[in-house]
């Protein structure tokens, strides 16, 4: 029963999160950050002055992509602090409930231009409180040796992808075709449903009260320092991947809007549908990829986790080259829709080889005494990647689109090269004293 409430809570939370995110850059560049509208936003002049002071002069479009990058980065940094609050002070139930309230308020505030910056702040705080603490509650439903634990997390992750798939189709279509604020309002309704489901099911969840701050903590063992450094190096390299992956929600929608042929007779495909395609590709390809890994394991031909992550980075670089090819073949005309479709399905393979594998490696290799903290540090790669995507987004207006995506292919491809070059010393470091890190 508890798992069911958590799964549906997460599905609707992701519906609201990705529904808003699918519209955010299009909303800022096509409406809010235009001079005639930005003056209505409370605190916008001060915000713009700070952004210009830190990043240099930014056009409205560059300011929008940089803002998006900072927002996404902070959304994935906040769970590090939110998890600490849930563990030490609030307890997980209260942290999730409070986070859901912040997110619900933030989504509804997005329907009003004047409180746009405050709405983003509320969403960042809410996501920080909810994200890590809700995922931790899945594990709390089962004993450590309960075989149902993996199935529970599989259903939880399925809820994430289902919510991410449906949100751009619903919120994105409504926002693009009928008005931005209608789309944001629907995201708020989704978050209100998430909060209601969670609160109605709390009696079926473990009563995770805040842990005692003076609880004994096991110290580091010989060799643990090398393991920690190895994991941190890997996470720094994965930030190159997340820089390009985050671009799928940042400048990529602007490229689709400007450059892709989306007309089908009387119907023009909304830009936000491509975000749904990104999630659909993961849902479709995850089962065959997992089957392939299991087959490799049975034949004892499975590559190491480092090799998988390097392969995923290389595949994602290949996906970016598909956008380059589409631009070159299109010339001055619009790019054929087959190229972004292929891009998303190749991206999905890259994600499956990088995202979950890097998290599993971190959890397995990090020493027990700092394991939870190191797993939280996994999200810091996405935090850095969010800022990186915003920084690269400023070049979208200045560069030819083919060169822009070629630059991104080089960024994520360099991650594959670095992992190959550092594979041997990283493997040695991860083996630690007991000789086996399982990586």
Structure overview:
This protein has 439 residues and is mostly helical. It is built from 15 helices and 2 strands. β1 and β2 (267-268) form a beta hairpin. It is globular, with a radius of gyration of 22 Å. The two termini are 35 Å apart.
Low-pLDDT residue spans: 433-438
**In which order are the strands of the major sheet placed?**
1-2
Oligomeric category: single chain
Work out the helix count: 15
Major beta-sheet overview: 2 strands, antiparallel
* Order of SSEs: HHHHHHHHHHEEHHHHH
Keywords: Cell membrane, Membrane, Peptide transport, Protein transport, Transmembrane, Transmembrane helix, Transport
Organism: Pacificimonas aurantium
Membrane topology: Multi-pass membrane protein
Transmembrane segments: 15-34, 68-86, 98-125, 179-198, 228-244, 273-293, 305-325, 337-361, 373-396, 402-423
What is the strand and helix layout of this fold?
Elements: H1 2-32, H2 35-38, H3 44-55, H4 60-90, H5 92-109, H6 116-140, H7 148-178, H8 180-200, H9 224-246, H10 252-259, E1 263-264, E2 267-268, H11 273-298, H12 305-330, H13 338-365, H14 371-393, H15 401-431
Antiparallel strand pairs: 1-2
Helix pairs in contact: 1-4, 1-7, 1-8, 4-5, 4-6, 4-14, 5-6, 5-8, 7-8, 7-11, 9-12, 9-13, 9-14, 9-15, 11-13, 12-13, 12-15, 13-14
Subcellular location: Cell membrane
InterPro entries: Dipep/tripep_permease, MFS_trans_sf, MFS_Transporters, POT_fam, PTR2_symporter_CS
Protein name: Peptide MFS transporter
């Amino acid at each position: 029963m508890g798992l069911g409430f958590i799964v549906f809570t997460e599905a609707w939370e992701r519906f609201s999160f990705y529904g808003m995110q699918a519209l955010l850059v299009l909303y800022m560049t096509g409406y809010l950050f235009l001079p005639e509208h930005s003056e209505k936003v409370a605190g916008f002049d001060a915000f713009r002055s700070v952004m210009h002071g830190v990043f240099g002069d930014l056009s409205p479009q560059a300011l929008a992509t940089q803002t998006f990058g900072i927002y996404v980065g902070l959304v994935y940094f906040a769970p590090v602090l939110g998890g600490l609050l849930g563990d030490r002070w609030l307890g997980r139930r209260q942290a999730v409930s409070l986070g859901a309230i912040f997110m619900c308020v933030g989504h509804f505030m997005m329907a009003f231009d004047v409180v746009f910056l405050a709405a983003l702040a509320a969403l960042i705080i809410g996501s920080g409180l909810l994200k890590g603490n809700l995922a931790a509650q899945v594990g709390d439903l089962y004993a450590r040796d309960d075989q149902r634990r993996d199935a529970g997390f599989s259903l939880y992750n399925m809820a994430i992808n289902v919510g991410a798939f449906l949100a751009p189709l619903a919120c994105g279509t409504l926002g693009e075709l009928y008005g931005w604020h209608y789309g944001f309002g629907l995201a708020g309704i989704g978050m209100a449903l998430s909060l209601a489901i969670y609160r109605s099911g709390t009696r079926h969840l473990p009563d995770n009260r805040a842990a005692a701050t003076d609880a004994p903590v096991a110290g580091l063992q010989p060799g643990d320092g090398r393991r920690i450094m190895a994991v941190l190096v890997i996470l720094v390299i994965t930030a190159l991947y997340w820089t390009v992956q985050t671009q799928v929600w940042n400048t990529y929608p602007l490229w689709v809007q400007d450059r892709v042929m989306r007309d089908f007779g009387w119907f023009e495909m909304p830009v936000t549908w491509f975000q749904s395609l990104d999630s659909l590709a993961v849902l479709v390809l995850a089962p065959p990829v997992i089957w392939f890994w299991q087959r490799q394991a049975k034949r004892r031909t499975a590559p190491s986790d480092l090799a998988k992550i390097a392969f995923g980075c290389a595949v994602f670089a290949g996906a970016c080259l598909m956008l380059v090819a589409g631009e070159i073949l299109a010339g001055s005309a619009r790019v054929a829709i087959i190229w972004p479709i292929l891009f998303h399905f190749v991206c999905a393979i890259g994600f499956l080889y990088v995202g979950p594998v890097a998290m599993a490696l971190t959890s397995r290799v990090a020493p027990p005494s700092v394991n939870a903290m190191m797993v939280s540090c996994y999200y810091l790669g996405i935090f850095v990647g969010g800022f990186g995507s915003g920084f690269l987004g400023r070049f979208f207006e200045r560069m030819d689109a083919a060169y822009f995506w070629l630059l991104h292919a080089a960024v994520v491809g360099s991650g594959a090269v670095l992992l190959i070059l550092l594979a041997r010393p990283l493997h040695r470091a991860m083996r630690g004293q007991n000789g086996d890190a399982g990586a």
